[in-house]
Amino acid sequence: MGAADNPLTPSLSEELPILSKLQDYGYSEEADSPVFLATIMDSMGDKGLSLLESLVNQLADFSENSESLNKTISDLKEQLDQEKRLTHNLKAENLQLSEENARMRKQIEQLGGKEKLTNDRAEAEEEQLRQWRAQSLHQLQELERMNQALRAVISRHTCPAPPSNTAVNTENISGKERPCGGYIVLSQALDPASGTTCSTANELKPMRLEQKDDTDRIIQSFQELRHDDAENDKDEDSDLHRSLMETKAELSAKNREVERLSSLLKDSAKMLQSVNEENKKVEAKCPKEKSDTDKSVDKKKVQDLEQKLESLLKTLKEQEHIISGLHLQLEQKVEELCFITDEKVVGEEALSASQLECRHLSSLIKDLNKKVNEMQSALDTRTRERDTAIAGEKQLAEAKELAEESFQKKCNDLSSELQASQKRQEMVLQEHDGLKKKIEEVNLKYEQALEDLQKCQKQLESAEKDVQELKALVTQLDLTREELVEKLRLTMTERIVLENQVASLEMELVRISKESDLRNSEMEQLHTLLQGVSKERDQIHAEVQSLKERLNVEESTRKAAEDRCALKAVELENLGEHLNSLMSDFKLVKTQLVTAISERENLVEDLKNLTNRLNYCEQVICAKEEEEKALSNSYDQLMEEHQQLKLAAIELGTQVQQQSFQCQNAEELLKTAQEHSNFLEEECRKLKDDLKEMEKQVEMLSRSLSQQSSFLDSMQREKTALISQLSSSKQTNLELEGRNTTLIRELAAIESNNQLLANMIQGKIQEAESVASRYRLEHERVRELEQLVTCFRAQEHQLQLESKDSGAKTAILKERLLALEEQVRLLQRCKDSQREEISRLSTLLKEKSEEESRRLNSLHAHAHGHDGHINNGIADSTNSKSKLQELELKTVSLAADLSKTASLYKDCFSRLQKAESQCAEQRNEYDHVLFILSKVDEDRLQLQQRCRQLVNVAGKSKLVNTNGKLDSITELPTENDKAKDASHGMKG
């Protein structure tokens, strides 16, 4: 664990050097008596106590952390209990619905058996059946709507709804196999003459079409409801999965906190061991020159310190026991979470079974539809024979009226049952709404906590981004400064070269004017030497051509190098595009795995920094290529003007080498970026593997839940049996309790008076003793706190002095930085002025070159003048070489000076950063000390208030004790007499 994770490390690191100073007081391992430890503590003064006080503060912080952990564990327990209650209620609702389905099936079977009438009566009752079927269809549809609504409510709490393909078709269901099959209700009145209904086959056709339209509409509405339920269930499953992942993350965080606390305990135990060992060593080295009174005082101090150390060790052991208990509680929580997931899987299996039942019922309904169609065809044939059977129907009219009355009674019973089921449904919906409201409140609290965390994270990220931007600005300023210094150096060298060339050209002009006057007199003597000079001229031309060929070869090599650089630039662009595509893919993966890749955000920021660096390198390469082009143009002009072929070739070779080095650096950067991208891909694969393992664990949990479902059913059966037994036993208990209440009241009234008096006397005595002991303890604590306040204020004064010194240092460093920035500005101004001078000198050179070309044309008419000009050109070339060497030496010295200034600038910047970090640390320490002092002042005020309260309570308790003793002496015999009378009454 680092210092950032452990809030107690700064105080320990500040106070540990005190132990190293014990050697100055006679530190050894030979003495055994406790007197030497007391002498050391006296010589150390308040430093030894500060160590013990720091340990006490650490243990107090540790106890606070353990209390916070206990609170979080209790909150988790409450959440688990709520989830268990929800699952229990849902299971009870499932059982009720299954019982109602079974009861309805039994009614269907019973009513189907009653409807099997004889063939003679069937012919007479066919007309009544047609009227009954329309109403029975309507009633069945309403019952199915109720059942499906209840099942949808259950499926929302357990698992997704079944697919919409399993919708129930309720068209043309026969009356024999309906749940209301035996309940015939006539929708039309009987004919008074014949005793039968007056409907015909022509009137039944529109009724059938209306029934089919109604059934189609009902089926569509059911399909839409199931589709909506399926979508809602999917959303709820995703929310449950998220909540499980969040609980796992919270458990991992709690495990980390427990590990951190255990490491703190180990560190504190090590510190105590080191203190004990060093105390033993110090005892051996302390002198034996104190009086008996001092020794007795020292012994008392040592004994107090040893008692404090023993109490600290006890508290450490207790905290270790607490941590072990917390570990056990965490394991129990994990087991409870597994149990909840198992229960969820059981609910899903129960829902799948209910879906299978629905499919089976749909198949039965289809069969019934076929039978209804057959019956309808038979009814159409028999309506034609109705006129012939009117006489027989008159005799059976009375029997039909009796049957109608029985059917009406049954229908009324069914309507009452429907109303009861509707009331139950309303109760269940109300409970469901209450649970939804509770869940929404919990989700709102959780979302508020998440928003707070996100705000904190955003603030941290913004602060880190600001720091990185400042660092990038500093590095960019350093680079720009170095570039400006290099350009200044180049301009200075160019200026010196041009000035030297101008001076040499002026000298040459004077010399050439003098020599031209001399050579005009010698022209006649040198005609004879023209032939030899022409031969030498031919040789020189041959040499010039060979040099030109070499130049062409070198230019071709240069072009090839430039082509290679262009290809590498294209490759860099392609690689940049490839990196951009990888970044987009990585963002897509990140959106899918937000919960698992939260800790990898730092790597994404590193990738962004690498891309920025690559872009910066590309910009630098482009800038350098432009500079190279400008330099090549300038070199071409110089070669055309001065014909210094060798120097130009050497400079071109150096440029090619620089480009090769730059290309190599760019390739190395690309390799590092590729390695980083491969590393990120491997981490993504690992995360995918972890997700697969988590899915396997979820499957294992679902299997274990299916095994425990049978055990739950058996326990519920046992519960019902026990409830029946309890109901029988409660009745007997109520009778006995009615008899005992009268007797218990009399006894309670007598005993309560005796116990009140005895408890009052004992309580007041104990309160007086506890008040006295608390007053002593708190008086001693007040003294110790006053000593702590004095120590902390001395440390505060020292910290203020140190902060003033650090502020002065930072001001000096800032002044140095400002001076360096002014130097950079002056260098830029010098650079601008030198550029202007270079432009002016270049114009002068052009003018002088034109004048020289004119003079040379005049001299070319004479052969001797031509030979002298060639000799002068050779001498000028030698002089220019020597001047170039001198200029290179000067540039080397300037570069060394610039490197020294850069190193000074970096040192100043590093010192500034160190000073700022030290100031920040001192401010944190100062704030920590102020916080401790505020706590001490608050504790002191609270202790003073408590002391005052305890003094007042002690005075009051003494008065009450004296009065209570007198009253108890007078009242005791009367209460004993009452008890005897009550016992005699019980016997009678």
Task: Please give a structural write-up.
By secondary structure, the chain is mostly helical. Among the domains are: 104-247 and 368-460, no CATH class; 546-948, no CATH class. 90% of the residues lie in helices and 0% in strands. It is built from 13 helices and no strands. It is flat. The relative contact order is 0.06. The model is unreliable at 1-19, 25-37, 114-118, 157-205, 286-290, 863-867 and 962-988 (pLDDT under 50).
Which helices and strands appear, and what pairs or packs with what?
Blueprint: H1 9-15, H2 17-20, H3 35-44, H4 46-114, H5 119-158, H6 201-285, H7 292-384, H8 390-395, H9 397-522, H10 530-592, H11 601-642, H12 645-859, H13 863-987
Helix pairs in contact: 3-6, 3-7, 4-5, 4-6, 4-7, 5-6, 5-7, 5-9, 6-7, 7-12, 9-12, 9-13, 10-11, 10-12, 11-12, 12-13
